[in-house]
């Protein structure tokens, strides 16, 4: 009797509990993903470091050359040491981190815009439109991305002059790298969005919208796209990590972001000739790239599980 009464009380409590919204269920699943929470906390700490650090060290200090202290090992005065021209590596990791993260975010915005447009149009209209857009996507997808990055970066290098924004000086190569990475990384997202649209366009709510004369543009972006946002969000999150790595690749090869703007990638390029003798020049920017990419990947894995409605709470 006691067990039966306890079961009945539990059933009543569950029935009286207000229904969770999809957002609440997703948040609950995300909180239970330990690595995702670890990644989110680590990413917050990194963002606080690159933002809060600018309140301690100015950009002028980060770019200041002092030949009397070149290649100084980590010490109390310079916690991360100095580089080949006497610049403080700690200050440069702060401002370099800002640019690397900005490049990652802005490149993903470009990638998401292009990928969603191509994937949604191909998936919704189908037929010849789908065939042409998907063949174009596959053609670009089969070209090695790093080759495209190097080629386009080399062609566009120097085309955009240095500019100032919010009191800071940015090399024109920042804009070039953002556009190049964005335009060479949209293909995977386009295929995901297309697959989602092919499934959703057969649902009853789309048929009802067509029957009442809703314009196709409205159906694509107001009815179907919100139902595809889970996959877009996950892909965009993971794309930020990929964009940061791609920027590091091309900057390490000398065709990425140019001086005076610092990034974690071009700091590694400057440390190329000091790998064994002055390891602090590459350890700290490399460590920040590693931790940032890992935290974003953990976060993306957690979002993927949290936004999957088939995952149990």
CATH class type: Mainly Alpha
Helical residue percent band = 55-70%
Main beta-sheet annotation: 2 strands, antiparallel
Secondary-structure element pattern, one letter each: HHHHHHHEEHHHHHHH
Tally the beta strands: 2
Distance between the termini: 30 Å
Q: What average pLDDT do the residues reach?
A: 83
Tally of helical segments: 14
Q: What percentage of amino acids are in beta strands?
A: under 5%
The name CATH uses for the topology is MetI-like fold
Q: What is the total number of structural domains?
A: 1
CATH homologous group name:
MetI-like
The low-pLDDT segments are none
The structure class reads: mainly alpha
The neighbouring-strand order within the major sheet is: 1-2
> Which word captures the global form?
globular
Provide a concise account of the structure shown:
The chain is an all-alpha fold. It contains 14 helices and two strands.
Task: Provide the fold topology.
Blueprint: H1 2-16, H2 22-31, H3 34-52, H4 59-62, H5 89-125, H6 127-141, H7 145-156, E1 163-165, E2 168-170, H8 173-183, H9 187-200, H10 204-211, H11 216-224, H12 229-252, H13 264-270, H14 280-306
Helix pairs in contact: 2-14, 3-5, 3-14, 5-6, 5-8, 5-9, 5-12, 5-14, 6-9, 7-8, 10-11, 12-13, 12-14, 13-14
Account of the protein in words:
There is one protein chain. By secondary structure, this protein is mainly alpha-helical. The protein has a single domain (24-63, 81-306), classed as MetI-like fold (Orthogonal Bundle), CATH 1.10.3720. The protein is 68% helix and 2% strand. The chain contains 14 helices and two strands. A hairpin with a 2-residue loop joins strand 1 and strand 2. Helix 5 packs parallel to helix 14, helix 12 (229-252) runs parallel beside helix 13 and helix 12 (229-252) packs antiparallel against helix 14. The longest helix has 37 residues, at 89-125. The relative contact order is 0.15.
């Amino acid at each position: 009797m006691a067990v039966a009464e306890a079961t009945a009380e539990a059933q009543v409590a569950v029935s009286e509990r207000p229904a969770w919204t999809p957002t609440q269920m997703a948040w609950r699943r995300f909180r239970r993903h330990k690595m995702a929470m670890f990644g989110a906390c680590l990413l917050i700490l990194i963002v606080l470091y690159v933002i809060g650090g600018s309140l301690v060290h100015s950009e002028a200090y980060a770019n200041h050359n002092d030949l009397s202290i070149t290649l100084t090992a980590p010490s109390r005065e310079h916690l991360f040491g100095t580089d080949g021209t006497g610049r403080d590596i700690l200050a440069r990791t702060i401002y370099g981190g800002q640019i690397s993260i900005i490049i990652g975010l802005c490149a993903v915005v470009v990638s998401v815009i292009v990928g969603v447009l191509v994937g949604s149009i191909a998936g919704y209209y189908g037929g010849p439109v789908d065939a042409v857009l998907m063949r174009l996507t596959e053609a670009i997808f089969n070209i090695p991305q790093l080759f495209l990055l190097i080629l386009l970066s080399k062609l566009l290098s120097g085309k955009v002059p240095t500019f100032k924004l919010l009191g800071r000086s940015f090399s024109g190569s920042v804009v070039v790298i953002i556009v190049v990475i964005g335009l060479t990384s949209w293909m995977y997202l386009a295929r995901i969005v297309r697959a989602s649209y092919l499934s959703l366009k057969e649902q009853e709510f789309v048929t009802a919208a067509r029957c009442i004369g809703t314009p196709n543009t409205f159906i694509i972006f107001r009815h179907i796209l919100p139902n595809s946002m889970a996959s877009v969000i996950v892909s965009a999150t993971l794309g930020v990590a990929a964009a940061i790595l791609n920027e590091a690749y091309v900057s390490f090869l000398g065709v990425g972001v140019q001086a005076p703007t610092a990034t974690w990638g071009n700091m590694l390029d400057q440390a190329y000739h000091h790998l064994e003798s002055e390891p602090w020049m590459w350890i700290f920017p490399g460590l920040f790239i590693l931790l940032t990419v890992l935290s974003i990947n953990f976060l993306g894995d957690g979002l993927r599980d949290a936004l999957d409605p088939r995952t149990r709470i």
